[in-house]
Design brief:
heterodimer, A: alpha+beta, Alpha-Beta Plaits, 2 domains, 10-stranded mixed β-sheet, two-stranded antiparallel sheet, B: alpha/beta, Rossmann fold, pyruvate-formate lyase- activating enzyme, 6-stranded mixed β-sheet, 4-stranded parallel β-sheet, 17 strands, 13% strand
Chain lengths: 220, 597
């Protein structure tokens, strides 16, 4: 069992979760990596992705678990030899058991370019203290939906024109693009939606605190 | 109202933005230098990216020194609306360059219902529709693809139409373009087009008019075995219609079914050896990683090295977990062993007509015994799902022939019961409507009137109803009527296409957008009598496409037409040359690979 951390950038940002899985499967086939297949009438390659990223958002910390016996460094090398531009793998861990990234992940950090008055930025940084923060949360089914996301905003830091927000991501998710739009709406700041980048993901540690996924993977 | 959205903002608002950004696997890096070609397909990304011709020509041009080829497809309607609202021009996927800034723009025209989308794309690109209204500042517009059999309805929109296969023709055109561009006196469109007419297969509608005709000879690849074939092909960023790799086993077809345009247009028949096919499959797996490779041709079961290909690839396809798909199998060539080598979940066969008599008329050389034998073999192997394709509106068709379709379905149920003792077979029957196509022995036939067609469709539908497990699908006959008009159309029809587009017609291949009423109105507004195109064509009248020399002679088509009326089948070219006019000096039928025992 090997888990790869990979980026999702450039044109690949626009690739949906299900198509992403196809891309990784094809990359494994091109690379000739022996991956286990499921049994049954329609066998499929045993790959497990982490928590989906909204289409259009970039990332340097996506995870895929691959059921293979090859050496992690070998996998990293041959995967990158044939991976599409924008889906480069950055690190590989061999784990003893299945890390279940999709099920275990609870939060993610996103960075985004921000501009605004100091006063607005100061007010915005206090968001995690709020008990309630209702924002527009449109979906295809309900374009005028709203949601209270206060419980899902874990932390906000602003430095050098970069906002770093840690938001719920997993069973409960606060979408970073909708979060950013709400900030623009409420605080009158400017955020480059195109710059949103997922930079870290977390699971819940034994002490109840957020544990970086990379650390988690080193100990599974 | 214009909101001054940026391109990135537009991408955030549309469904499936991956359609518009390029950057797929194996997409070459562009520099914006050299001769810039934009390859377009007037259909959405998912359809355009499925097209083998587009994939082939894209890589062919990009491998040409000094040429950069980008792509553009018809945007989906949500994007069309945003582009119109924001007054943003239609751009290429790779470098987001407006179409009108390219040197050459090529359209692959696959079928008649795409004509309005050509205008939609030109309109979004800000390019005038008629070649005569485009000055030196606009790109050279080229059309190609299957609809070049009769390019007349859309000829006025293009500077060049490529008749036949483009793999050699397009690079010759780009090379000529580069020479003219670099010439001392500078580029002159008129001079370039005059020179282009010397390239075999090139038709320049402005210089070759119905009033002053010269013959254009169809272009084809003589050496198909060694023809260019990219293995590191584009892999789409979202699921497309045919999401798989494809290898052509051969071009052309030996069967000579009398309704089939492709069977005549792609002559002479040219094979690729089993060894070469297997090596291409190997390369495609390395280059694309697809989990399926389709072994395509007009009649895959007729390929002499099919078993050889399947058995050669079996170990590799098992080890690398991909499977081989065999489309276009003929009923008489289906053998159970193919199905065990290639994974298929259902059997698909095209008897095309319900009775032996009518199959003899259309030269679909399948007998009732073939049907019985092949299906029994398949049922014993565990298949319980059969798809059948038929055509309605064939010349000399009677109600008895239609009842023959029903008879075949009951027989399949009986055969299944006899073979397996069970009754759980499902039969899916699809009936298309014959459109008499140019370059076939039926090119003079009348298109059956939509009311009569509906009667025949309902007759079959009602007769199939009592049969358990049999489902029936039939084709909308209003679309077929328009296809028939444009298939045999002349240059007058370019005004109908323009008018229909002006009235709002586009995406006509999609039932949810197709507006028959708009086309009818456009035909009326242009003062066109549609009967001129739908009725039987007199034999002594020259047809609009007969200035094109596709190899097959008119005499041969006339002979085949008489044979059709006499219900006399013509055997396959494999059993001896029929002298259609396409035969090559070496013989068009040679297969140089290892032949199946």
């Amino acid at each position: 069992m090997i888990t790869l951390r990979f980026e999702k950038q450039l044109a690949m940002r626009y690739v949906s979760h299900i198509d992403l899985l196809r891309h990784i499967e094809r990359t494994m086939r091109r690379a000739g990596v022996p991956v286990a297949f499921s049994q049954g009438f329609n066998p499929h390659m045993q790959l497990n992705l982490g928590v989906p990223l909204p289409v259009g958002v970039g990332s340097v910390c996506e995870y895929v678990t691959v059921d293979t016996e090859v050496d992690p460094h070998y996998l990293l090398t041959v995967y990158n030899r044939t991976a599409p531009k924008g889906l480069r793998a950055l690190q590989a861990w061999r784990t003893l058991k299945h890390p279940n990234m999709a099920g275990k992940t609870v939060a993610a950090t996103y960075t985004m370019a921000i501009r605004g008055e100091d006063e607005a930025l100061g007010a915005l940084a206090k968001l995690p203290e709020r008990q309630s923060w209702v924002i527009a949360y449109p979906s295809r089914k309900n374009p005028t939906a709203t949601r209270d996301v206060a419980a899902g905003v874990f932390g906000i830091q602003i430095a050098d024109g970069l906002l770093r927000a840690t938001l719920a991501s997993g069973n409960v998710t606060v979408r970073p693009d909708l979060f950013a739009e709400a900030l623009m709406q409420e605080f009158g700041v400017e955020i480059d939606l195109d710059s949103i980048l997922r930079t870290a993901q977390y699971v819940r540690g034994q002490d109840g605190r957020l544990l970086a996924a990379d650390t988690y993977l080193s100990n599974v | 109202m214009k909101q001054n959205l940026t391109w990135k903002e537009i991408l955030r608002r549309v469904d499936k933005p991956a359609r518009y950004v390029g950057g797929e696997l194996n997409c070459p890096t562009m520099t914006g230098e050299g001769t810039r070609f934009c390859l377009c397909m007037p259909d959405i990304y998912e359809v355009g990216m499925s097209n083998l011709g587009v994939r082939l020509l894209y890589h062919r041009l990009n491998d040409e020194p000094g040429v950069e080829c980008e792509r553009c497809f018809t945007p989906a309607m949500d994007m069309v609306e945003l582009l119109r609202q924001e007054e943003m021009p239609l751009c290429s996927l790779e470098t987001h360059t407006p179409l009108k800034d390219f040197d050459l723009v090529g359209f692959s025209v696959q079928y008649e219902m795409l004509y309005s989308n050509i205008l939609l794309m030109l309109d979004l690109a800000g390019i005038p529709f008629r070649a005569s209204n485009r000055g030196e500042d606009y790109p050279i517009l080229i059309a190609g693809g299957p609809c070049a059999v009769n390019p007349e309805p859309y000829a006025d929109f293009f500077d060049i139409v490529n008749i036949g296969e483009g793999e050699e023709m397009l690079p010759e055109i780009t090379a000529l373009y580069a020479r003219h561009k670099a010439s001392a006196e500078g580029f002159n469109k008129q001079r370039f087009l005059e020179d282009a007419t010397h390239i075999e297969g090139v038709y320049v509608p402005a210089l070759n008019t119905p009033e002053h005709r010269s013959v254009v000879k169809k272009r084809y690849l003589a050496d198909f075995e060694h023809a260019y074939y990219p293995t590191a092909q584009l892999v789409a960023n979202l699921e497309v219609v045919h999401d798989r790799a494809m290898v052509e086993l051969y071009r052309g077809c030996a069967n000579g079914c009398r309704f089939c345009q492709a069977g005549f247009y792609y002559r002479p028949i040219r094979y690729r050896s089993a060894e070469r096919v297997a090596s291409l499959c190997h390369g495609l797996t390395d280059g694309t990683g697809y989990d399926e490779i389709s072994l395509g041709s007009l009649s895959t079961g007729d390929y002499p090295g099919l078993k050889k290909v399947l058995s050669t690839l079996k170990p590799e396809s098992e080890a690398r977990h991909y499977h081989l798909a065999l489309p276009s199998m003929r009923l008489d060539t289906f053998e159970g062993e193919f199905s065990s080598l290639a994974k298929t979940s259902s059997l698909t066969f095209a008897p095309e007509a319900g009775t032996q008599r009518l199959r003899d008329v259309i030269n679909k050389n399948i007998s009732d015994e073939d049907i019985n034998r092949s299906l029994t073999a398949a049922f014993l192997r565990g298949y319980n799902n059969v798809k059948l394709y038929f055509m309605l509106g064939l010349p000399t068709e009677t109600d008895e022939d239609l009842m023959g379709i029903v008879e075949i379905c009951s027989r399949i149920r009986r055969l299944y019961r006899e073979a397996t003792g069970r009754r759980d077979v499902t039969v899916s029957v699809s009936c298309a409507v014959l459109v008499p196509k140019p370059l076939t022995p039926f090119q003079w036939e009348a298109q059956i009137h939509p009311d009569e067609m509906l009667r025949r469709q309902l007759l079959v539908k009602n007769a199939l109803r009592p049969l358990k497990g049999v489902t029936f699908h039939y084709h909308d006959n209003t679309t077929s009527e328009l296809e028939a008009i444009f298939a045999r159309g002349d240059r007058k029809l370019s005004y109908v296409i323009e008018r229909a587009y002006e009235l709002g017609a586009c995406m006509d291949g999609w039932t949810e957008y197709f507006r028959y009423d708009l086309w009818k109105q456009a035909i009326r507004d242009c003062g066109i009598d549609e009967r001129e195109y739908l009725d039987a064509q007199p034999l002594d009248k020259p047809l609009p496409w007969e200035f094109i020399d596709c190899g097959v002679t008119r005499r041969y088509l006339e002979k085949e037409r008489e044979a059709a009326y006499a219900a006399t089948p013509t055997p396959s070219c494999n059993k001896g040359c029929r002298g259609c006019g396409c035969q090559t000096k070496e013989g068009c039928n040679r297969y140089n690979g290892e032949v199946d025992a």
